[in-house]
Amino acid sequence: MNNEDEYWPRSAEDRERWAALRAWEPERLEPHIPALLAWLKTGDAGSEEAAAALLPLEYALVVPIRSILKGGDARWKAAVLERLVADMPKDIALELAPDLLTLAMSASESDLEEGVDELAEDMLARWL
User: How far apart are the first and last CA of the chain?
Assistant: First the structure.
């Protein structure tokens, strides 16, 4: 994050910095997509703030989200689906339909434990 470290939220409760971050232009925020996606794993108030900051980035999120959905961290997948993908506009969310279908049809054991398969099914049913 280099010279922007001073602007980055220090904790989930750092409301002032989270508000400032949400006001950033998409071009300024895009390089920070991986770090913001990592906040989603925490499940704390920071994950809600991170999701709010990420949602306006729309299509820039498809590839990083796809990478998470293809990965092995079921808890992260569930968090991304619940806090981000569920609130995306339909046209952007549909870009992830093949990945959601894979999760719904052939989820791993850990995905099943976290309910990733059911989340994926629910989203597909809503959008298709």
Answer: 38
d(CA 40, CA 80) in angstroms, rounded, equals 7
* pLDDT tens string 52-95: 999 999 999 999 999 999 999 999 999 999 999 999 999 999 99
Residues 6+ apart with CB under 8 A from 101: 120, 124
Residue 66: how many other CB atoms lie within 10 Å: 14
Alpha-carbon span 77 to 19, nearest angstrom: 25
Q: Which tokens sit at 34?
A: 């991986």
* pLDDT confidence tier of residue 1, bands split at 50, 70 and 90: very low
> pTM score, two decimals?
0.91
The HSE-up count of residue 66 (CA atoms within 13 Å, CB side) is 13
Half-sphere exposure of 56 (CA within 13 A, CB side): 14
According to DSSP H, which parts of 1-128 are helical?
15-22, 26-29, 33-40, 45-54, 62-70, 74-83, 90-93, 97-105, 109-114, 116-127
* pLDDT given at position 42: 87
